[in-house]
Amino acid sequence: MYVRQAANALQILEYFAERLKPATAAEIAEDLGWPRSSTFKLVGTLAAKGYLYEPRPRGGYYPSPRWLDLAERVTRADPLPPELHALVVELARDTGETSLIAAQAGDQAIFLDVRESHQPVRYFTRIGDRVPLHASSAGRALLAQMSLEERTKLYRRMAFERYSPTTPVSAEEVEAEIAEARRRGFHQSNSEYTPDLAGVTLPLTWNGRRLSVVVVGPVSRCLDRRPEIAELMKARLAELGIG
Predict the structure, then answer these.
(1) 85-91, long-range: CB < 8 A, 24+ apart
(2) How many domains does the chain have?
(3) Do both 107 and 227 map to the same domain?
(4) Each residue's pLDDT tens digit, 197-240
(5) 88 close to 100: Cβ distance less than 8 angstroms
(6) Co-location of 68 and 90 in the same domain
(7) 208, 193, 48: which is closest to 130 by C-alpha?
(8) pLDDT band at 76 (very low <50, low <70, confident <90, very high)
(9) Which residues span the domain enclosing 84?
């Protein structure tokens, strides 16, 4: 399900995160390619609710601190532990590749923390981005932490879309990947969802939360290094008392 009005409200926040200065409703409409009438209504609604304000009279709108206040309160209620953020930072530093923490969101894996590689050619992603459970090592490592009964119920709701020749496209193929990962000792991917990317993932349980930790980068650098990267990841998890 995709609700356009909700998506547009969030896109305005993303717009200001890139613009970093006030904008009039007319500028927002032009920059985003939206109809002026609906943009004016949306901006007016967000301003009336206290999410946008005018720093200077007639100088354009800008997000108010209300967004930050809400985000901080939500985060404090269910925070990602600092130890896991440190893990992501260390893995990105030690492997030279993008590292992240993922959790389940329906039939997707959502990224809760991301540290990008500093390499010129790298995997670019952001906190909040999602990948399909069936078509990613991040997702299959989350599936592997469920019981077979849980996975079977979830499979019934999944579309198993094919994104590339290497994408597993059935419950049976995903189960085979999970079984092979258990024998191998880590989950891996090779261009299953995003072309030319290879990844390594380990399941991660923290205070009852099912998570996965991922290192991912271009096939040219990472495909043959996956066992080496997996061993480094296991060593870091062992330092945290996991695995």
Answers:
(1) 85/113, 87/213, 87/236, 87/237, 87/240, 88/113, 88/114, 88/115, 88/213, 89/115, 90/236, 91/115, 91/213, 91/215, 91/232, 91/233, 91/236
(2) 2
(3) yes
(4) 999 999 999 888 999 999 999 999 999 999 999 999 999 999 88
(5) yes
(6) no
(7) 193
(8) low
(9) 80-239
